Amino acid sequence: MPASEILEAEGHLIDSQVLNQIFDTVVHHGGEFEVQAFDIGRTNDEPSHLTIRVTTKRKAELQGLIAALLPLGCRVARGGNALTKPVARDGAAPEDFHSTTNHRTQVRLGGEWVPVAHQRMDAAIVVKDGAAECRKLRDLRKGDQVVVGVEGVRVVPEFVERDRLGFAFMTNEVSSERRVEVAVGRIAAMMREIKATGGRVAVVAGPVVVHTGGAPYLAELIREGFVDAVLAGNALAVHDIERQLYGTSLGVNLDTGKAIDGGHRHHMKAINTIVRAGGIAAAVAQGVLKGGVMYECVKKGVPFVLAGSIRDDGPLPDTEMDLIKAQNQYAAA
Fold first, then answer.
1. Distance between the two ends of the chain, CA-based, in angstroms?
2. CA–CA separation, 241 vs 273, rounded Å?
C-alpha cells in the first residue's frame, strides 16, 4: 500500500536552491510530492515556508525518502517527540539510528525542540536528562538512549543569504574553463570575512603543498594570522622541514625540479634532526628550524595535529600514531 507523510521546511529555500533539491530528491527516490503551501519570504531576512506531502509505493521506502530529505531542512510536520532505543552493546547503535550531518540539528523532547550539542557528521544522537548530544559510534555504551527514525528530528542546513554570495560556490564543481585566480580570490575573500567576524580557519593540507611550491605562501598566511589550526599528516611536516633544511622535497630540488645526488636520504635526515632536537617546537627554540609552515605554526602559537599512517617514516615525535587520538585532536583543534 502507498504511504505518505506531510513535511515542513523553512529558510531561504529559493536562494539556496534547496527547493529544487527537495523536489529532485523525492523524484530520485521514486516518490511523488504535492506542495500544500509555499509562502515566500517578503524581505531579505524573512525565510520562506514549505508544506509538502510526499508519497511512496511502500512504507519502508517512505522512511528512506524522509531520511534523505532531513539534511535539506525537512521535518515531519505532525510534531511528535524524537524516538529512542537503548544501546544493547558497547560501540553499536540500534539498526535504525539517526546518522547526523554537520548541519545544526534539533530533536523534539517533551514537546520542545532541543539543540543537539557537539554537532558533527557521522554520529549518533544520545538523549539523557532532557538534553541531546552527538556521539561517535565507538563511544556509545550499553544503555545509552539513541535517537532512531526520522520523527522529532530537525536539521538546519546552511542557507545562502539574499544579500551576499555566502559560501555556496564551494559546493559546486569548478569548471576547468574557469580561471583558478577567480576561485582563489573568492576563497581569500571568504577567509577575510571569517576572520573579520571572529570565525576560525582550519587548513587541512598534505605534502602536495610543499611539492608544488605552495609552502611559502601557506607559511605567510599563518604568519599574518589567517590560519587558526593546521590538520595534516606526518608527510606535510617532514617535507616542509626537509625543504627548510636542504631545499628539497623527497630529494628533488624545488628550484630546479631535478633530483640531487644523495637526496633520497634528506627526508630521513630531516626526521632525525627533529628527533635529536626533541620535537618541532624544540627545534625552533634551538634555532635548528628557521622557517616554513611548521616553524610559523610554532612561532604564531597555531595548534597543529599530525595524524600518522602505516606508511610514515620515522615518524616525527609530534606525529600521533594512535588514529583515534588523532581524530579527537583534530576535532578539538
1. 50
2. 10
Least confident of 140-144, 178-182, 191-195, 253-257: 178-182
pTM given for the model? 0.73
- Which residues does residue 253 pair with via DSSP β-bridges, in sequence order? 248
Residue 156: Cβ-neighbour burial (10 angstroms; 0-12, 13-18, 19+):
middle
Q: Are 73 and 66 in contact (CB under 8 A)?
A: no
Give the CA diameter of the chain.
75
Q: How long, in residues, is the chain?
A: 333
Which triple of cell numbers denotes residue 330? 583534530
Residue 87, sorted as left (phi over 0), alpha (psi -120 to 50) or beta, turns out to be: beta
Between these two residues, 181 and 190, which has the higher pLDDT value? 190
Answer yes or no: is pLDDT of 168 > 60. no
Of the CA atoms within 13 Å of residue 138, those in its CB half-sphere come to 5
Rg of the chain (C-alpha set)? 25
Nearest residue to 18 (alpha-carbon basis) of 169, 161, 159: 159
3-state secondary structure of 216: helix
